[in-house]
């Protein structure tokens, strides 16, 4: 078909520290919440790290990043999104001095990216909080976390300001509503957590995010600092106005976060929600002023869309979709029940742009699938992942359509550009990569890397700046 992507469009891929680095206790790193969550979102939290936790080794990116960056460069990446593990820099989170060895690792990693002409895009907090902050303070429920996060942000901004231009404050900040422990470090079990404490934690994260934007702009005048939300367009299940309103209210829960980060204040619909649910947010004296420091761009993940309904019976039918919502009868789903909707990406790009008029960055999108390693004609191991190519191609075509709609899009980073440990299942077998990593769910495997068919496809997309789509 051939789309005209803008010059300088940032093509690339994305990972997160806790899902790929491994080396969970090396070079002074402290424990993080992920080190005690061996089963991902489903399973129990353990007292201390256990051998069945695949994230402790990950894909050993900590030791093999040079080889991996080399492969990304071969595909032509212009940008590489990763996160800094907070507990490498401040092992307990509330330490006064940073850990030099942790700082050094990211110096080397970012240098390696720059050497290959790749801009690092760095998430400050991607689904991991220093475990000590979780246990001792109950994570973001405690206002003190704002100060600890600020110290961490200042430290890394100062250290990497000449290397990193693009920053994100919190990964999928809205996911704290569903995943208070992994997303917000909240130690209280979800079923015992009051809405009051949950939304107070949300408030603290929003203030911390705005504070990071404020100090980031002061310390790095050329930097671009964005928010990152899990996007999930919610269509009314039927044209019944009750369903339309139900879908709108469902979307509000997610838009709320970007609304505050992009507009600098709480929206009226959220004040109403707080009133009707007996929630009273404790504000610090400067909070409203701090929130006015809005982000430079909106970044988001996009995997699925869903439907909203007013029918309580149908609402029960929400299994599989990320943040609840009802199954759409017109869409197919992945093996994990995630409904595939390429047009939803164009839709959500339009929604965000109409709402905020700020540049957008798609920082996660991809298909989790089970891959089979085979040998090609020359006997080289590979994966014939046509299903992944199809998924990505269909979504990128919709990005092309959104560009035609006049939307400002900074870039696209495919999620899990190299296979890594899944966030939800904590297994290796839900793979997203262009590069296969030989590691199995039982922890066995050589950790060798192999190019999949999609590797060559993506290389072509990048080298033609989207013309080959
Ligand atoms: C997003 C997270 C990522 C990632 C991705 C895919 O919600 O930001 O960390 O893992 O989803 O999810 P999963 O790994 O569960 O398939």
Oligomer: single chain
The radius of gyration computed from the alpha-carbon positions, rounded to a whole number of angstroms, is 21 Å
Q: What's the N-to-C terminus distance?
A: 6 Å
Number of domains: 1
CATH topology: TIM Barrel
Poorly predicted ranges (pLDDT <50, ≥5 residues)?
A: none
In the CATH hierarchy, the architecture is Alpha-Beta Barrel
Task: Name the overall outline.
Answer: globular
Strand order of the largest sheet: 1-2-3-4-5-7-9-12
Number of strands: 14
Q: Which range best describes the helical content: under 10%, 10-25%, 25-40%, 40-55%, 55-70% or over 70%? A: 25-40%
- What is the CATH C-level name? Alpha Beta
Protein name: Amygdalase
Active site: 364 (nucleophile)
Family: Belongs to the glycosyl hydrolase 1 family.
Keywords: Glycosidase, Hydrolase
Looking at this protein, list some descriptive labels:
binds 6-O-phosphono-beta-D-galactopyranose, Glyco_hydro_1, TIM Barrel, alpha/beta, 38% helix, two-stranded parallel ribbon, single chain, eight-stranded parallel β-barrel, globular, 15 helices, 469 residues, 14 strands
